[in-house]
Design brief:
Strand order of the largest sheet: 5-6-7-15-10-13
Bound molecules: fe (ii) ion
Strand content: 35-45%
Number of helices: 3
Number of domains: 1
Shape: globular
Number of strands: 18
Largest sheet: 6 strands, antiparallel
CATH architecture: Sandwich
CATH topology: Jelly Rolls
Structural class: mainly beta
CATH superfamily: Jelly Rolls
Helix content: under 10%
Length: 236
């Protein structure tokens, strides 16, 4: 599957990512590593690779463009997903934001922000091929493959170490995405929940996103806000 011809050739051959003729290295997350964050860990099913992460396929300053491939499957009634993480605070104290694009397949994202009293606000974003959106500062996130084929995602993010502990301690995100809809994770107290389209969440944070690779390759400065969230102008 050819993802891009320009600005460089990016191709997926099965689970191998090839950039301009060269195999790109990856790290993989196994199904058994996700057990702690599953809605129904006893229905985990056979072990194997749950998803592949190809990091730094393109880079500019401290920002990198990554690709993730999530296999289609179910864990009980829950769709295949990533482990979930929060981002650390940037120099400007707000946590780093991130941008995502669905390159192939169908996805749901569960974003959540923790209040001082430990309750959380959640935003569900459902995205189809080519759509891109912002994960705002302060929001942890989980990506779900809600389609029946491999989900290929792109993201651009600043270099930092992600924080997984909240997700592991609470056994997953605040809402699980299942074949029967979203199910609340009872380890959380939910303060707010809403469903936004990629367009709505981008509008709220004052960002206009098109194809991420083209934008990032040609005008990387447009992603300055990923290193310095004070450059975002939320319309709240
Ligand atoms: Fe992230």
């Amino acid at each position: 599957m050819i993802l891009y011809e320009k600005p460089f050739r990016l191709e997926l051959l099965g689970r191998t990512l090839i950039k301009d003729g060269e195999e790109w290295p990856f790290t993989a997350r196994k199904v058994s590593e996700l057990k702690e964050v599953m809605m129904e860990p006893h229905l985990m099913g056979p072990d194997g690779i749950a998803y592949y992460m190809f990091r730094g396929v393109h880079q500019w300053e401290n920002l990198r463009y990554d690709i993730t491939l999530i296999e289609p499957r179910f864990y009980g009634d829950e769709y295949a997903k990533t482990l979930g993480h929060y981002h650390p605070p940037s120099k400007a104290s707000q946590a780093y934001p991130e941008v995502y694009q669905v390159l192939k397949g169908k996805a749901s994202f569960v974003l959540q922000r923790k209040h001082k009293d430990e309750s959380v606000d959640c935003i569900m974003v459902e995205a189809n091929e080519k759509e891109s959106f912002i994960v705002p500062p302060g929001y942890g996130h989980v990506s779900y493959n809600t389609g029946d084929s491999p989900l290929v995602l792109a993201n651009i993010v600043a270099g930092f170490d992600s924080r997984y502990d909240e997700y592991l301690e609470n056994h997953g995100p605040a809402f699980f995405c299942t074949r029967f809809g979203y199910k609340q994770n009872t380890y959380y107290i939910i303060k707010g929940q809403e469903k936004l389209s990629p367009r709505q969440i981008n509008k709220r944070y004052g960002v206009i996103l098109g194809d991420l690779l083209g934008m990032f390759y040609n005008k990387p400065q447009k992603f300055d806000f990923l290193s310095d969230p004070t450059k975002l102008t939320p319309v709240l």
